[in-house]
Structure formats: structure tokens, C-alpha cells
């Protein structure tokens, strides 16, 4: 079963539609008085800016008037905002009456609503998550006559909105593939009645392209029934947005269907480029842009280095406890939290672990039965269970006020995605926390996300997006500023709302430590008792040694020799420690050229300090910019892990070969890593190749075949026998095996089983790893 959580992005295409008879009043039968409003080819729309508007009841008159004002044969299209006669005071009355709010949440919200009700421009609105974007189109929808159409990406999201509107006694409907025939008929009857009771109609972008919707939209447009079109999550329009949906690209069609309606596009995450794309693709006219900064002042952001935490689960549990507060007399907690995991298994594991550690938690993912999902969501929403451990399929449309923390156990796929997911915290504007647990090998998670998208180029694009997240994690600057910069905004540092501002030294230390230890968790273990605040105790001079290579398999304590090395200030280790120390001390005082130089020095440190027993071949090689031995070691570990599984599975019935597993795997992993390194043109292509290779080996394992990496070793072995060479750092499996057990290895080579149990005879061919 797939771990990929995009199942919720169900294509809502026409093929899924239930049968429905043709609309009773197709476009051709449009009534005469609205004849001029048929979509007109090449007709220019004149948008007037005058503030005087006719009364609502005079809408038809206005239409006539605009006809009378026309020059030539073609009458100008009517202007919907002019047909409404909304007064400023109506807006405040509606805000209170329909939505129960005494005022607007922000000036942006207020100004955007006023533009749509009183002005005559389309609008692009960027408000942070929880900023109240829905109101920006829902309120005008209550003031405009007729119907407003809202495009929303998910049926689940639409259903949430419908429920919330229903609770406010506002009639909103949706036409989607999940409706029964009767439900669909009832909605269509109302929409084709000519005086629909429905005020807001929600549709998915896929639905917009169906003939049924096109016909309906034309029919309603011809009767002046559609005045407002809102596109929610508008960043999905742009390939540069983090959630690009190809069907959003076709929404330009709407402009042709309802040329005179006002368009409003809303999003919480859009760079300048995305904003431009949205305005262009949606053919928005004379667009007013309402942008707030993306910064949410009530959110505290920090990053924790998962690889160097002694007990990451407990760390998370302590964080959750601190955030959700006390159990109240009514049996619910003061606050709630979300832990985002990438894999379903992780959701389950974390939920069990947190519960065991005293934080009641439930998993939530697409693999659960619908009734379980509903129950879990209700338990969480109503406060019976304080923490939900979920994949990213959970959250869109979740509007729970007291979410006091959002923790990412796996990395989000982009910074824009992170902003949106973490933004589910503190929707009531109260202080809340957003924490990201970072692991240096995290990019490998990206491979799992890309399961269905095997093309190298796509992997590269995903990795590039993903790198925005790793850059965020590996920085020491203000987190808010870093995110804002990503969205093209120039903000001041927050000073108080992130670890970068409140505890920069600590962040730098943790990063240093992570850099030095690579993927070696065990080495930096700090006291278990105090592990939630582990780094308060952390002293780089004691714990900051580097250990790479086999990381996880190594003892927790540094060797005596290593301690001596640190204490006496000798050897490479001390050199690096001192370098880092110097760097930290000098950081604040450096001039720009000095900073540049320091950066270069820092870069150079990427290539030194590897352990003597590193399994990497040529670990100091600087050929690939920015790719040092630490990342290579982590990748080596990954290759080794999947080659090991492959070896074990393949030789399960050949004990004499199984006994050689360790040595063969190490040699194959070293050679394979070096081969990929040698072929890489950049750090990113190296990572992409590792990801691909891992995938390929796993597939081979599933097919009960021996990985190609081992077959190459066999070939080398044969070659080595014919022409033995002393190869410096390189040790072939053949060399190692023959030095340990010469005779048995010869036997093994002779009796090598076929490379595929399914297909015993596999022809030797040119081997290519990448
Ligand atoms: N003027 C207001 N006064 C008080 N509360 C408001 C106001 N406007 C919106 N809200 C509330 O703010 C919360 C968030 O609103 P909404 O769901 O529209 O946010 P959003 O910007 O669409 O968020 P997201 O990007 O996460 O979807 C809701 O609970 C809503 O009722």
C-alpha cells in the first residue's frame, strides 16, 4: 500500500459524475433581458471606477442602462459590482449578522472585503494561515445578489466549509462526484430555478472543466446570477507554488464563462512569482493586491536536531506536554497539538510512543478506515485526545482554535508547505509553537514522496524544493525572516519568536555538533534525565567530537585516544574543534570580506576530519562543491542498509554466502557510493542518484534478485584474479574475501548462484550504477 498521502487529491472529473439529465434551460434559451451578457468574443470590458451604484432592486435596470450606454452593435458587459449597490454600513451589519464578528480581524481583511463590495477591481489576497481568508469572499457573497462560486482544491475541504456555513444558516452547496443522484438533482433544480436559494456554490477545479458545469455557468451568467468567483488556495495555479495542481491551470476558462464576475484569489503562501502567475493565469483584471507579511507573530519557531537527541521520542513528548498544558475538570486539555509524520507507520509509532510517555495521542492517516478517521478527528477536535499524529492529509480545513503546537517529525516537502502546515497552530492568535525535528539524512524521505515520480528531473526539482527546508533548518538566523525571505519579503528579525533570535549560540552549537557527528546519534548522547533540554547541558568541548562512518554501530563513549586528542589539543579532531570555536567567537566581529573568507574556510572543513576507519573511498575528495564526507557517509549508510537487506534476502538459503554478508555489503556499498560520487556533477545530482539507486536496490530485493552492486564485485573479483592490482584505498570484495578466506571465496565465485532466483540465467552486461 502506498505511503504517499496524495490520495485525498481525488480527481473529481466528469467521468465520476452521476447521470443527470440535460439542464432544462441551456444557454441557447437565455432570456432576452440578459441577452447582452452572453460571453462575447473579443469584447473589451470597461471597468469604471465610479463609486455611485444603483440599488440592488434595480439590478435589471442597471443592465438595461449599460445597454443604452453602448456604442455600436455590441453592448458592453454589465458590471456586477455596480449591480449591487452595497453600502459600507451593509458590510459591518453582514459581518455581525451572518458571521457573528464584531469587527474585522485585520485591515487587510477589511480592505479586501471593501474592494470586493464597493470597488470595481479583482483582488489577490495573501493572508497568513488562519488570517480569515474565507470571510473575504463569504461576506461579499452574502451581499451580492445571486450566487458566488468558490473554487476549492479538495472535496474534504469543501465539506468542512459547507458545514461551517450551514452552522451560520447560510445556504451553500457543492456539486461534486460524491453526491447521490437525489442530492445532485435537488441542487441542480435550485441552481436552474432562476432564483436560486443557494448563495455560495463550491466546486473543485476538475469540476469546472466538465460540460455540465460549463453549461450551468453559461446559463447562470446569461441571467446575471454569478457576481463573484473566488479561488481558494490560489497558489495551486502556479508551478512555482508548493502544491501545484494542473487542473488549476485551466481555471482561466472561468473568465470566459463569467466574464463580468469579480474574481478574488486567496492564498496563505505565495512568492511574488506565484502572485504574478496567479494573476496572469486567472486573467484577473486590474487586480488589487492585498498582501500581509507571512509572519505570524504569535508563533514561535524552532528546529531540533533529531540525529543528536539521545531520546527523540521523549524530547517530543516533553515538548507536547509543555504545550498542551493541564488537564481541565471537564476532561479535556487546555491546548492541543499536531505531530506531522511522513509515513503512516511513523504516525502509528509516534502515537503509541507519546501515549506511553504520558501524552495521549492518536494516529490519523489515509490507511485508516473512514469511520476511524472520523472518530479520531472528532476526539481531537472536541479535546478528548490532545495530540494527533498525522500525515499531511490532515489539516486542510481544520479550524481548531487552541492548537498550541505543530511539530514536524518528518520534514515538510518545501518551505511553503511548512508555512502552511505549521500555520495550523495558534489560529486563535494566542502564543503557540512550531517545531521541526531535523535529520541530516532527511532528503532520503523525499525519495519516498517521489515514489510515483521516477523521472530524474522531477526528483531534482523536488530535491531543490526540499533544500529550501534543509537550508532553513541548517541556518542560525531568524526563522521568520528566513521564511519571509523565501517568499520575497524583506522583514525585520522577530527578536523574540524563534530560536534563531532567542538562542542563536545554542542553535549554532547544535548545528556544529550535528555537522561534526554526521549521522552518529550515539556519540553525542547527553543525560537521559534532562533530554528535553539536553542542549542546555551541552558543551561542545566535551561532546562535540566528530564520529562518522559507521555511526550507529559504534560505542557511545569516545575512545581514550580520542579523549586524549581533544584534551591535549592534538590531531585533526582538535583542529576542527578549535576551528569551530574560533569561528563562533569571531562571527560577530567579521567584516564582509572576512565573513566571505570564513565561509570559504567553513566550506573547506567539509572535507577534513573524517575518521581513520571511514568506509568511504577518497573521503577528502573536493570535486563536488559542497559535498563533504559527512553527507557521503550518511549516503553510504543508506546504501549499505539496503544492500544488506538485499544480500540477506538473496542468500537466505546459502549459509556460506550469508556468512560473508557484512564484508561483501561494506565493499559493495563503498564502491557503489564512490561510483555515484564520481559520476555526480553537483551535490543535488549526487543525492538524486543515491535516491534512485536505493529505490532500484529495493526493487531488486522485492524481485528476489541480487543487487547489481554485488554482481559488479563478482566481475571485479574475476578480473582481479586475472590481473591483480594494488589499488590504494580501494579494496575489492574479492581482495577482502580472499585475504580472509581464500579457498572458500574461490569456491563461492565458482558456485555463484544465479543473480535472479526468478530468472536463473542473467547475462553479463555492462554495468551502470546511475
Ligand atoms: N473578523 C473576524 N473576527 C474574528 N474571527 C474571525 C474573523 N475572520 C475570520 N475569523 C476566524 O478566523 C479563523 C480562521 O479563518 P479562516 O478559516 O477563514 O482562515 P484562513 O485564512 O482561510 O486559514 P487557512 O489558510 O488555514 O485556510 C476562523 O475560525 C474564523 O472564524
From TrEMBL:
<dbReference type="InterPro" id="IPR014001">
    <property type="entry name" value="Helicase_ATP-bd"/>
</dbReference>
<feature type="region of interest" description="Disordered">
    <location>
        <begin position="1"/>
        <end position="84"/>
    </location>
</feature>
<feature type="domain" description="Helicase ATP-binding">
    <location>
        <begin position="114"/>
        <end position="288"/>
    </location>
</feature>
<dbReference type="InterPro" id="IPR004589">
    <property type="entry name" value="DNA_helicase_ATP-dep_RecQ"/>
</dbReference>
<keyword id="KW-0378">Hydrolase</keyword>
<keyword id="KW-0347">Helicase</keyword>
<feature type="compositionally biased region" description="Low complexity">
    <location>
        <begin position="47"/>
        <end position="57"/>
    </location>
</feature>
<dbReference type="Pfam" id="PF00270">
    <property type="entry name" value="DEAD"/>
</dbReference>
<protein>
    <recommendedName>
        <fullName>ATP-dependent DNA helicase</fullName>
        <ecNumber>5.6.2.4</ecNumber>
    </recommendedName>
</protein>
<dbReference type="InterPro" id="IPR011545">
    <property type="entry name" value="DEAD/DEAH_box_helicase_dom"/>
</dbReference>
<feature type="compositionally biased region" description="Basic residues">
    <location>
        <begin position="58"/>
        <end position="67"/>
    </location>
</feature>
<feature type="compositionally biased region" description="Acidic residues">
    <location>
        <begin position="1"/>
        <end position="15"/>
    </location>
</feature>
<dbReference type="Pfam" id="PF16124">
    <property type="entry name" value="RecQ_Zn_bind"/>
</dbReference>
<dbReference type="InterPro" id="IPR001650">
    <property type="entry name" value="Helicase_C-like"/>
</dbReference>
<dbReference type="Pfam" id="PF00271">
    <property type="entry name" value="Helicase_C"/>
</dbReference>
<feature type="region of interest" description="Disordered">
    <location>
        <begin position="737"/>
        <end position="757"/>
    </location>
</feature>
<keyword id="KW-0539">Nucleus</keyword>
<comment type="similarity">
    <text>Belongs to the helicase family. RecQ subfamily.</text>
</comment>
<keyword id="KW-0547">Nucleotide-binding</keyword>
<feature type="domain" description="Helicase C-terminal">
    <location>
        <begin position="326"/>
        <end position="467"/>
    </location>
</feature>
<dbReference type="InterPro" id="IPR027417">
    <property type="entry name" value="P-loop_NTPase"/>
</dbReference>
<dbReference type="InterPro" id="IPR032284">
    <property type="entry name" value="RecQ_Zn-bd"/>
</dbReference>
<keyword id="KW-0067">ATP-binding</keyword>
